[in-house]
Amino acid sequence: MKHIVYLSRAVHALTDHDLQHLLDQSRHDNEQQGITGVLFYSHGNIAQLFEGEDEIADALFARIAQDGRHSHVRKLVDKPIAARSFSNWSMAFHPLVTEGFEALQGFLLPHHMPPAPDSLPIADALVVELVRLAVFGPDPSQPYHHALPLAP
Amino acid sequence: MLRQLPAGVATLEGPDLRYGFINDRMRELVGEGQPGQRVTDFPGNLPSVFLEMLPRIYTDGSEHTAKACACGPHHCYDLSVQPYHDEQGQIAGLLLLAVDVSEQEAARQRAHELALTTRHLDARLRVLTETAPLMTYTVDAAGAVTYVSPQWYRFTGQPPTADLTAIWPLLVHPDDRLRVLYESAAGRRTGTGWNFEYRLRRYDGVYRWMLSRALPEVHPPEAPFFWHGALTEVHLERELSEARRRGEAELRFLADSIPELVWTASAEGLVDYYNQFTMEYTGLTKEELGPTGWVGLLYLQEQAAAARRWVQSVASGEPFEGEYRLRRHDGVYRWHTIRARQLSDESGPRWFGTCSDVEEQYRLRQVLQTQYDELSRAHHNLDTFVYAASHDLRQPTNNLRGLFEELRRSASFADPEQAVMLGMVDTALAELDSTLIDLATTVRTQRQQQEPVEVLDMSLVLEEILLGLRPEIMQRGARIDVQVGEAPGLRYSRANLRSVVHNLVSNALKFSHPNRPPLIVLRSYLTPDGQPVLEVRDNGLGMHIDDPAHPIFQLFARQHTHVDGTGVGLYLVQRIVSSQGGHLAVTSVIGEGTTFTIHWHTPSSSS
Ligand SMILES: Cc1cc2nc3c(=O)[nH]c(=O)nc-3n(C[C@H](O)[C@H](O)[C@H](O)COP(=O)(O)O)c2cc1C
Any idea where the BLUF domain is (chain A) (predicted)? Predict the structure, then answer.
């Protein structure tokens, strides 16, 4: 098992419809391939963390890197993990039209993310936090650190 | 009209001070009191000090205004009283006037609470400003420096008596001085803050780049009068970004030559470069460290807080600074100051970070702590001694008093002088006795607060004590063998344990045999019935235990007159151990050595 994190830029701003399409497509494929993780999207900024068996994850990254919908794909992390930190695959973005998206399964409003699971090493939780920050910018209504565990 | 008055009015008639007129407002204070009844019988909520004054004011006859605050069920009143007169000018009664001051009282209460909160905040702020790694300062509107934190004095090496306002511009690098003076003056003139960098002269004469930021303290509508600011050293980061301006290769060349952990991170806060020293220190490759791997090098309990701080810095662009333990390749953690700041060039913002080893400073702090502990132990010994001695000296004093009493009764004195003398002696004895009691109580109350019983890690406490005795141990070439495996923990007061062990070990060192280096064995174990025991065994001179001419546990008793000492130590040990419900056993062979066995608790008193 490994997880991979990357940042990228959308070639064209993705509409709510595009995103929903991507979500549906990826959810279906990921479920079949045992890929879990999260994708962030905002104003053309993309970040994704996914985890799965080594070959499957590598192959997925190769496919994603080739995908014409985005460019400037920067792989940030590619390393073995002992256990999954995400139970399914989900996506977080600022929808242009909020209604309807709330009800969508697998979709999270950017600042309603659940905290990182305890099994995630802090260094990795920090990666997730930083890419989320890079995609969405600081949440003005919240301190930036709600997904990192409080000091024990 | 009097009834509607927004103040309480009542009259007390005649020398008995019976209620006459009472308006509604006054009801709240006098309660059930009815006209004709005496105020002393129905005082309602009137304060007693006030009641006591009334007859005096009546008999005095002169005009009097007395004030007192009485809190009725709903309100708080200022009470005033004055006599009134009949047509003949005779005093006929007293007029009471109660003015509602609830508002003022509540305001006073609030002010008091506010003052308390402020005090707390103040204390907290003080601790924060004086322990944080950055220096803080305060400047007034005229440019006078009214405060700098202790860190500033440490950095500049200036004495605490330095004239701050005059000296600080002189410590700024001549090339930066005018600019700095101009910018801070401009900030003060326009009522804004400032944010600039300059080189500040360190205690050793070296100039270091500092970042100075300040904000005005504003209380509209007044113009700001104070500016509070912080100074952070940004020297290395600045040099690195200078190098980077000349190219990435230059940056790496410089960074790799620095014997400190240096790294850079993208605008998103993801580390993209670690210098050579980082690899050497951590024993990890760039890939293993990864974009956030540094956080995994910190103490586990400190990782989350450090990560949150980093995210905050990245989000706000604020510099990052903190002290953390960093794991070395061999698993040893060393204290480091981690600093990072964001600097921009043509290719956009980038973070420059350094981790400087401050382990030595931490060691120094620890030595200071040990010395402090030693002092407090010595203090504790002294206390125990005073307490025990005062207690033990009372018995002979009492005996003496009894004797004198007897003497006075049985002997008759022809000479009156002698009787006077005897009285004086008696007084002196009584005084001595009460002094001793006072002494004992003072020390006891003081000590009760500072002697918490806790579970002590024997190996740690013993090590601490031995650290305090290091000079003597070294000087005598003594070997100390500590064996705590059988009973590693002990429920006892730390100060008491330290006193006992310190005294026994220093005794063992003091009375060592001239023909061989001292060997002292400290062994903590449990008796067959589970009671904790500490054995202190030496190979020293040994002593007479049953010799009535040389009692070992008595105050000022000394066995070896050729060795310095006051004869207090063993006495103290004995007192402490028995006061905690334990006992002390000793065996000794002259010329071979002594073994003290401390039974910390008696079987019944412990559980
Ligand atoms: C930002 C982004 C994220 C994507 N995430 C996934 C994903 O998690 N799982 C997945 O199967 N495809 C994902 N895709 C789609 C893949 O790039 C690719 O289109 C898909 O796997 C189908 O590939 P194929 O047409 O070669 O079979 C993503 C595409 C983009 C642009």
Answer: 1-92
Identify the bridge partners of residue B325 per DSSP, sorted by sequence position: B335
Residue with tokens 């067959």: B528
Lowest mean pLDDT among A34-38, B172-176, B218-222, B367-371: B367-371
Amino acid at B313: S
Tell me the residue type at B391: H
- A64 CB near ligand 1 (under 6 Å): yes
Read off the pLDDT band of B149 (50, 70, 90).
confident
**Domain coordinates in residue numbering, chain A:** 2-136
SS3 assignment, position B161: coil
Nearest CA in chain B to A121: B296
Quick one: which H or E segment has residue B466? Answer: helix B458-468
Please state the three-class secondary structure of B363-381 as a single string.
HHHHHHHHHHHHHHHHHHH
Last residue of a domain, one of B357, B374, B402: B357
Domain span holding position B14? 8-100
Q: Summarize the confidence of residues B561-586 as an average pLDDT.
A: 71
* Residue closest to B306 by CA, chosen among B330, B332, B338: B338
HSE value, Cβ hemisphere, 13 Å, CA-based, for B203? 9
Tell me how far apart the alpha carbons of residues B475 and B464 are, in angstroms, rounded to a whole number: 18
Residues B455 and B589 in one domain: yes
Q: Separation of B269 CA from ligand 1 center, angstroms?
A: 26
Give, to the nearest 10 degrees, the angle between helix B494-510 and helix B458-468: 50
**Does residue A21 register a pLDDT over 50?**
yes
ipTM of the complex: 0.79
Reading the block at residue B274, the tokens are 């670690």
Q: Which of B406, B441, B476 is the last residue of a domain?
A: B441
Q: Determine whether the shortest distance from the Cβ of A69 to ligand 1 is under 6 A.
A: yes
Return the structure tokens found at B195: 């944010």
Pocket of ligand 1, candidates A29, A35, A36: which has the most ligand atoms within 8 Å of its Cβ, to mutate? A29
- The number of folded domains in chain B is 5
Same domain? B85 vs B213: no
DSSP structural state of residue A151: P
In a domain, B116, yes or no: no
Q: What is the CATH T-level fold of the domain A2-136, as seen in this structure?
A: Alpha-Beta Plaits (3.30.70)
Other Cβ atoms less than 10 A from the Cβ of A76: the count is 22
Distance of alpha carbon B281 from alpha carbon B261, whole angstroms = 8
